[in-house]
Amino acid sequence: MDLCTMDLRITRQRGFLLFIFTCSSLLHGSRGEIPSKPTGGVTILPPIKPDNGPQAFPDAEKENMPVFTMNYSRIQIPFEITLWVLLASFAKIGFHVYKKITVWVPESCLLITIGLIVGGIMHSVHEEPPAVLRSNVFFLYMLPPIVLDSAYFMPTRPFFENIGTVLWFAVVGTLWNSIGIGMSLYAICQIEAFGVQDINLQENLLFATIISAVDPVAVLSVFEDVSVNEQLYIVVFGECLFNDAVTVVLYNMFNFVAEMPVVEPVDVFLGVARFFVVGFGGMGFGILFGFTAAFTTRFTSRVREIEPLFIFMYSYLAYLVAELFSISSIMAIVTCALTMKYYVEENVSQRSCTTIRHVVKMLGSIAETLIFFFLGVVTITTDHEWNWGYILFTLLFAFVWRGLGVLVLTQIINPFRTIPFNFKDQFGLAYGGLRGAISFALVFTLPDSIGRKQLFVTATIAVILFTVFLQGISIRPLIEFINVRRTNRNLDTINVEIHCRIMDHTIAGIEDLCGQWSHFYWKDKFMKFNNQILRKILIRDNRAESSIVALYKKLELQNAMEILDDVSGDISAAPSVVSPYEAKPKRKFLAPDLKNMHDILSKNMYKIRQRTVAYTTKHALPNESQSKEILIRRHASIRRSLRPGSFQSSVVPKSHKYFSLPAGKSLDSKFPPGMTSYADDEETMSEAAYPSRRSRLVQPARSSSSRAMMPLRRLDTLTEVHSVDVVDEKVGDRRRAARGTSRTNSSSSRDPRIPAPQRHHSSADNGRGSADNFRNGHHEEEEEEPQPLSPAPSWTAEPREDAAQNPLLRRPQWKPKK
Amino acid sequence: MGASQTRPEHRHQDLADRTGFSLEQIKNLHKRFQQLSGDEDTISKENLESIPTLANNPIRKQIIGAFFDKSAFAECLLAAGGAPHFPYRHQRGFILFGLRNQHRGEAGSCDQIGFEQFLMVMSHFRPPTLKMTAEEKEAMRREKLRFLFNMHDTDNDGTITLVEYRKVVEELLSKSGSIGQEAAEAIADAAMLEVASTNVPTMGPDDFYEGITFEHFEQILKGLEMESRMHIRFLDVDTTTMRCGKSTS
Questions:
Q1: Which helix (H) or strand (E) holds B42?
Q2: Average pLDDT score, chain A
Q3: Which helix (H) or strand (E) holds B159?
Q4: What Cα–Cα distance (Å) separates residue B116 from each residue in B74, B119, B151?
Q5: Maximum Cα–Cα distance for chain B, whole Å?
Q6: CB–CB of A546 and B176 under 8 A?
Q7: For residues A508 and B54, what is the distance between their CA atoms, to the nearest angstrom?
Q8: 3-class DSSP state for residue B112?
Q9: Is the pLDDT reported for residue A782 higher than 70?
Q10: Which of A20-29, A240-249, B1-10, B160-169 has the weakest average pLDDT?
Q11: Start and end of every EF-hand domain (chain B) (predicted)?
């Protein structure tokens, strides 16, 4: 990320470099907590000094071939950027060494503190900070990742459920704050005693706009930790996102107005019109680019290695194009992210999806870290204009107007909300209005033509420091003290998912019955439209995947992963070991994206088989089918050792017990939990009974596609064979016909089987086994033909594509063979 | 059920007291009711099934079934009647539970329901208000859970058996593309196993889990904020007339 165009003079570079190295090694060495190990830094210095020596004369005229040259000016800018980013990142590492600190003191506070220290040192050696916060650099490079981060990780469902409130607070609230603070400050400016009469109304409004941009990252992480109720969380989240958009629009407008000599009433109307054009224009571009991105990823299945790139390029393109027409670029990137996220994540492979999430998160957090860091540095190193009256009143007004705004706006919005905000929520909302990165960056990018820029910078920094430190630190105890209503957000059970869906459908149905068209009605309508039209166009593998199925798969994966993690230990003890163990890592990754376990899973698999991973071509990603095999193999062996093989092992320490059905009990009337589909049993049995025949049938078909060892291949085949039973889009009708036959085939054997006590032992099994075997053979023949057409199925990489083939979905077929 | 149409205001007031709806809401719902029933006193399953917007709902059958469930009605009456006495609700729930089990034979579904029952069922979807105490919220939550539970428990025996659960999951997934029946079954099984393991952790190898009882049902959905999720905004303003032409045939 090229963040800054640093304009350090050559003469200062050496000292500065030394300084950076000292700092980073200091922070690195002492983890940022105990800055008292200068030796660590000093040891690094010697090798650097001589290196730096020659660069002052880079192009000395010489005839001989130089043995050793240095050209620092060539690499200066990227080099320094890298060092700054590293420094900030080291600081971040530092805080997280001591978990307790980040719990009680928000990270932004710590970053600012580090920045203050660094700034202090720089100031003492008369070093100038890099000019990172030029208007262009900020708006073109720093802001997009921050906004993309928030937008991409916006919890979609609660957001749309509360969209009215979110927009109400973001748009009206920001206007309210800007105008309120601006007007009151203008009134203050009329008092002669403060000596700020020269600030006119436009400038006051501009300044007020800047400091009404809330940035409650710290608050959000606190909210997440104490899991406050969803409504409050999403309103704060959404507010900060759209509030940025509104603020930037207002900022540009007032910036323009502030330079006008006279403001006529027409301009006000034009301004209002422009406000809407800018907002909706940005939204339009965002939607356009979002759909384009989704449509593009439809075709990227063969170029997985560059897949994640499209997401970033399209979002950035949306941003830049919006900038080009000077409409709200934040709006554009936010809507772009929101629009494409859903479709893109279905189109891209699991791995690309993980990559996208990580990179988005990484870029966002590094941009934010840098801004906070520079905030600290700049606080020390710039010249301030301190005006007690103006700054104190700014603080006061910022606080009062925010409080009043929330109070008034909630009173207005509450009648329209089904779950109104109570006073505790309102307090959280008002108190969560921290100012942060955006305000700081905006005030720094003010044009120099504004006379009191220094004062504005000082005042903004004061407000930011005040809110971030005071409110940021005190919000957690306060929220816990007043006991805001909480929502349990860690509900990852299938039952909950199923019942949530049922509730959704029920509510939509009841709304239909009432003839009321409200929220769920529109949601239902949109889902229909989405399923019938949008998905067909935008999604490659157009199979509407129910969230229940998705969750089921996720849980299966998670479970498989836990077992994998535990593989070194006693496998039969795995379930009981896992359950206490599992709770912890979850807490660690609070960010919702990190909750997904898939990446960990794939990593784990790589470790096992790393030696065998072959990078076939330069552009191919490491082969994914290997991990599949590993997992399958794992799975099989786990099944064997766990014997009953509960896939819910973490939750279900004793579940394996249920797997044995008491003899003579009828499956039909009383069902033992953990039974899976009947066909699976048959599969297992047939395999147990006729292993030789099976493999004979199978092997010729496989020999071309699989490089695996024999036993693996057999397992592998099993999965694919089975997939026929479930679904396969590609093969379509022909396959379905095959399925039909198999169905009749199996259903004939199914009915007598239902009351059958349990698999393997029953004497009836053998007879049935042969029938199944016939069925299997039938399938395999069906299977062979389409197989080469489709890329080697690999569910780790493309869970959607072969959702059906997911071996985990078909769990019990991996039953231990007798 | 849909007895006296003579004094609608008085009747509505009475209903309002019992269901917690406001008079306007009741008026609106009453209009809708008449619209659906074709100005009859009672409404039949066919009336509801013919609602075009409902046609795409995967669990339409259960939803409509919920309206015609006798025992649910009885419970609604009791529950709603007990509105001021929330603390006793738990007991009532148990009594009802017993009742429901006793009536197993005859407590099927009825063909016609009146406005009163229509309203009672609707009253399950009232949103919580700011004034509610924690106890009232808890009671409301139970009531909503009970409603959901009854939707699953089609044979009214007090437990959701695996067969019933599977059916629900299957229907739920039926609209979302080509998910095989096996997948649906596997999911239902997994869900069932989950319930079993959370509720009966110490199960002998010879035991089997009969089905989800209401207590277990409550247990598995413990973390879920029912009272703030399962609700509908019943409109105070009369807007039904504007839609008559479109939504009904």
A1: strand B42-44
A2: 66
A3: strand B159-160
A4: 11, 5, 19
A5: 62
A6: yes
A7: 8
A8: strand
A9: no
A10: A20-29
A11: 140-175
Residue pLDDT, tens place only, A716-739: 333 333 333 333 444 444 444 444
Sign (positive/negative) of CA torsion B82, B86, B89, B91?
negative
User: In terms of CA atoms, which chain A residue is nearest residue B129?
Assistant: A419
Work out the minimum CA distance from A428 to partner chain B, whole angstroms.
17
CA A472 to centroid of chain Cα atoms: 23
User: Which of A623, A495, A651 lies closest to A558, judged by CA?
Assistant: A651
* Cα distances (angstroms) measured from residue A716 to each of A405, A555, A599, B103, B120: 62, 21, 22, 53, 55
* Dihedral sign from CA coordinates of A752, A754, A757, A759: positive
Give the side-chain half-sphere CA count within 13 A for A461: 27
User: Which residue, A360, A363, A320, is CA-closest to A344?
Assistant: A360
The pLDDT assigned to A770 comes to 41
Question: Is residue A599 predicted with pLDDT exceeding 70?
Answer: no
pLDDT digits 0-9 by tens, A128-163: 766 655 667 878 888 899 889 888 888 887 888 788
CA distance A48 to A17: 9
Strand partners, B113: B43
> Of B80, B125, B154, B78, which is closest to residue B226 (Cα–Cα)?
B125
User: What distance in Å separates the CA atoms of residue A293 and residue A369, rounded to the nearest whole number?
Assistant: 28
**Yes or no, beta carbons of B209 and A672 under 8 Å apart:** yes
Q: Is A506 on the interface with B (CB under 8 A)?
A: yes
> Is B196 close to A674, i.e. CB distance below 8 A?
yes
Residues of B in contact with A731 (CB under 8 A): none
Kindly report the number of other CB atoms within 10 A of residue B52's CB atom.
11
Six token digits for residue A392: 């104190």
Across the interface, of A229, A491, A519, the residue whose CB is closest to B224 is A491
Nearest to A201 by CA among A186, A181, A191: A186
- Find the CB nearest A509 among B63, B229, B240: B63
- A178 Cα to chain B: minimum distance (Å): 31
Of B181, B201, B239, which is closest to A653 when you measure between CB atoms? B201
Q: In chain B, positions 112-171, which contact chain A (CB-CB < 8 Å)? A: 122, 125, 127-130, 148, 151, 161-163, 168-169
